[in-house]
């Protein structure tokens, strides 16, 4: 019952918006017609009534002329039919008198006269019947002409009555807009109703299988060392060794030891300022352990979202992690290192990039420690070789993916269930990782603002961030 209620609510919303779109379209076209006319409405209405009245009068006169011709042809046809009948009757009587014994007893001169008269009667009958046939055809054409004039007269009378009744400018231009642009507006409304469902069907059954079969993206080779992930929690402690420097977003800092030196770092990496601004890596708190021997601690948790949990990812030397910077809450550089190497990979000419909308990837090179924030926590998926399995692989919801080791082959594959995608619960593609390595994902596929039914503005924002790998 809940699904039916949601479906009916969706239909009602679509219908309401469709009617609103139809009304706005006709109102816009009506206003355009009004502004284009630049004439006095009443004056134009009177001119139209006069023109229609004149045309109606002409059609009525033409109808009278046609009716007069029809009456005349009907009378002529009747006369010709009577003439043909009379000639046939006289010819039959004369033929009876001029045959058999009567012909033998009749003088030859009289027989000759009778034959000549019989021939004239038969010719008269033929001419009369030919005239009747010609008059029938002429009457048929005249009736067609009369019918056409009556139809035209009926249309003009309807227009004249409408013009006489039409005293409202709004209704006049509404009717004019409907007559001229109604089909176009209806087409737009139909496309608004049917376009998205048909587009989703085509994308799932035609486009997605083709893209899924393309070669995967591989950003590097399998590293000798593996990244490690410390289990995520709502609150997590991080130990800073002597000389370590940590940069963290202010909203994640909960508590810290007094011995840590703090200052503001405006951008995480001045080499990519726009990326840092878009990912929120600005106005960071820099904390440095300047103590020669002491290990100092800092505690982190999300201060504005109870669903966000944190995890610590250690990237050793010789390893790296491809990461979306928008999930980065903080970063630790060891031994006083003030900048972590970040490689940028562009993939502009691969079909997968155009399908997913992500053209740039960020690779964080170790040694470093990353503090990641994910919805309900961060989960590490380890892909390792298994007996009987040529290439290990695992798929994840595209909205949940945080990062992966560059040795994994990455490509989008079509979502497993059509209805989940059709109803907007899952994206068209899942992320498939193949090979040996680690990929990180959120425990749930919530994606910030996009989790709220994939609202239009949130989807646009997330799409722009994805283009630049954020």
Spell out the key features of this protein.
9 helices, 470 residues, 6-stranded antiparallel sheet, 19 strands, alpha+beta
Could you characterize what this model shows?
The chain is built from 9 helices and 19 strands. Helix 1 packs across helix 5 and helix 2 packs antiparallel against helix 4 (108-165). Residues 447-458 have low confidence and may be disordered. It is of the alpha+beta class and 470 residues long. It is elongated, with a radius of gyration of 46 Å. The strands form 4 sheets. It has a 7-stranded antiparallel sheet. Strands 11-12-9-16-19-14 form a 6-stranded antiparallel sheet, with no helix packed on it. Strands 2-7-4 form a 3-stranded antiparallel sheet, with no helix packed on it.
Question: Strands, helices and their partners?
Answer:
Blueprint (H helix, E strand, L loop, with lengths): L1 H36 L3 H57 L3 H5 L2 H58 L3 H44 L15 E6 L1 E6 L4 E4 L4 E4 L4 E7 L5 H7 L2 E7 L7 E6 L6 E8 L4 E4 L4 E6 L8 E5 L4 H6 L3 E6 L2 E8 L2 E6 L9 E5 L3 E4 L4 E6 L3 H5 L6 E6 L2 E6 L13 H12 L3
Antiparallel strand pairs: 1-8, 2-7, 3-6, 3-10, 4-7, 5-6, 8-13, 9-12, 9-16, 10-13, 11-12, 14-19, 15-18, 16-19, 17-18
Helix pairs in contact: 1-5, 2-4
